[in-house]
DNA sequence: AACTTGTCCAACCGCAAGAAT
DNA sequence: TATTCTTGCGGTTGGACAAGT
C-alpha cells in the first residue's frame, strides 16, 4: 500500500502564514510542546497540514532563531562543513546554533554556490595534477588526515559571536513592509522565551541532540547548549547504527562514542555533555596559524563541489 | 512610467527512516 | 515480521521585491 498523503488536500490553506496563525500555532506549542503535529490542525483549528505547522515552527517560530545576513565566520563555517558533510543542511545547521537548515540551504544556494563558482572560475581550472576529488575519495583522504581535519573543524567552529550580526532582538533593519510583522514575530519569540516544555524523547537526532531538533527555553540556553548538542549530530549515525556513515568514516571511531547511559542521563538532565568531538577539537592548543588551513579547506570545498 | 530581469527566501513536495501497532 | 503512522530532510518552486533598461 502506498504511503497516504500527510493531510487532506482539500480545505488546507497554503501560502504565507499570517500573524494570527503564527500566534495560534505558537500558543499551542507553548502549551503542549512541539511534536504530535498531526494533532495540531484539528486542535487549533488551523487550516494547515501538520507538515506545514511543523515547518513553520522549526523554521520560523522556534525561539532563538537568528534572521538576517550571515557573518563571515558563519559563511566560512558553512563552506567548511559543506565540504565535509555535503548537502546535509540539517547537520550543517546544527553547527550554527541560531540558523535553520532552510536558512543555511538558501544561503548556500543564493550566495555561496555563486561565490564558489566565481572563485573556481577565476582560479586555475583543475589539471591532471589536481584532479576533482570525489566525495568518497575526500572522505577517505580525510580519514587518513585526521590532524588536518581536526584543526580545520576546530577553526571552523570557533565562531566569533561578537562578529556575528545581531540577534532577533536587535536584528538588522527590516524592510518597512515587513516591520510590522517582524514586530509580531518578535513578540511571539518574547512570549515563548519562557517556554520550557521538556523535549519529548524521540528517535535519532532528537534523542541525541535535543538542542538541534527541539526548542530550548530561551535564547541563551539554546546558545549554550547548541554547540555540544550540535556536535552530537555527528554521533547520530553511530547511535542509530544505520544511514550514511560517511561522517563516521571521517573520524576515528574513538571520537564517535555510543549514546551510552551517561550521555543520555546528562542530556535528560539538561546538561549537555562535552561531546567527544569537542574534546577532540579542544585537544590541540598549539595555536598554529589558521590561514593556511582555511585555504586548504576552501580548496577542498572548491574541488569537491562539482559545477 | 512600464517592463524585464535578477535576487531572496518562505513554503511546498516527495522520499526515507524510525516508531508504533 | 509486516504494515501503518509520524517526522525529518533535501530539492525545488513561487511570489515579493529590487535593480536595471
Automatic annotation (TrEMBL):
Gene Ontology CC: one annotated term: nucleus
Keyword annotations from UniProtKB, A to Z: DNA-binding, Nucleus, Repeat, Transcription, Transcription regulation
Annotated Myb-like domain residues: 9-61, 62-112
Listed Pfam families: Myb_DNA-binding
Main location: nucleus
Subcellular location field: Nucleus
Any one Gene Ontology BP term: response to auxin
Region of interest (Disordered), residue spans: 118-137
Record-level Gene Ontology MF annotations: DNA binding
PANTHER family, A to Z: MYB FAMILY TRANSCRIPTION FACTOR, MYB TRANSCRIPTION FACTOR MYB30
Name listed for the protein in its UniProt record: Uncharacterized protein
Amino acid at each position: 500500500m502506498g504511503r497516504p498523503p500527510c493531510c487532506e488536500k482539500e480545505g488546507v490553506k497554503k501560502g504565507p502564514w499570517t500573524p494570527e496563525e503564527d500566534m495560534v500555532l505558537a500558543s499551542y506549542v507553548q502549551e503542549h510542546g512541539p511534536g504530535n503535529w498531526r494533532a495540531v490542525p484539528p486542535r487549533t483549528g488551523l487550516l494547515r497540514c501538520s507538515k506545514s505547522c511543523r515547518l513553520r515552527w522549526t523554521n520560523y517560530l522556534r525561539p532563538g532563531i537568528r534572521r538576517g545576513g550571515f557573518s563571515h565566520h558563519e559563511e566560512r563555517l558553512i563552506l567548511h562543513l559543506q565540504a565535509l558533510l555535503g548537502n546535509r543542511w540539517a547537520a550543517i545547521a546544527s553547527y550554527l546554533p541560531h540558523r535553520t537548515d532552510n536558512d543555511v540551504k538558501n544561503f548556500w544556494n543564493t550566495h555561496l554556490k555563486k561565490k564558489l563558482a566565481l572563485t573556481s572560475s577565476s582560479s586555475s581550472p583543475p589539471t591532471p595534477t589536481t584532479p576533482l576529488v570525489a566525495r568518497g575519495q575526500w572522505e577517505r583522504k580525510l580519514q587518513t588526515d585526521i590532524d588536518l581535519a581536526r584543526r580545520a573543524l576546530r577553526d571552523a567552529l570557533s565562531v566569533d559571536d561578537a562578529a556575528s550580526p545581531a540577534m532577533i532582538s536587535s536584528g538588522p533593519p527590516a524592510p518597512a513592509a515587513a516591520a510590522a510583522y517582524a514586530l509580531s514575530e518578535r513578540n511571539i519569540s518574547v512570549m515563548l522565551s519562557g517556554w520550557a516544555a521538556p523535549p519529548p524523547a524521540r528517535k535519532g537526532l532528537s534523542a541525541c541532540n535535543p538542542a538541534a531538533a527541539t526548542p530550548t527555553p530561551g535564547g541563551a540556553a539554546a546558545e549554550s547548549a547548541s554547540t555540544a548538542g550540535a556536535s552530537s549530530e555527528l554521533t547520530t549515525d553511530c547511535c542509530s547504527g544505520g544511514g550514511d556513515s560517511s561522517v563516521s568514516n571521517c573520524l576515528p571511531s574513538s571520537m564517535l562514542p555510543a549514546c551510552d547511559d551517561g550521555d543520555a542521563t546528562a542530556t535528560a538532565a539538561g546538561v549537555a555533555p562535552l561531546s567527544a568531538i569537542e574534546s577532540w577539537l579542544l585537544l590541540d592548543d598549539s595555536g598554529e596559524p589558521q590561514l593556511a588551513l582555511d585555504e586548504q579547506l576552501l580548496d577542498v570545498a572548491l574541488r569537491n563541489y562539482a559545477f
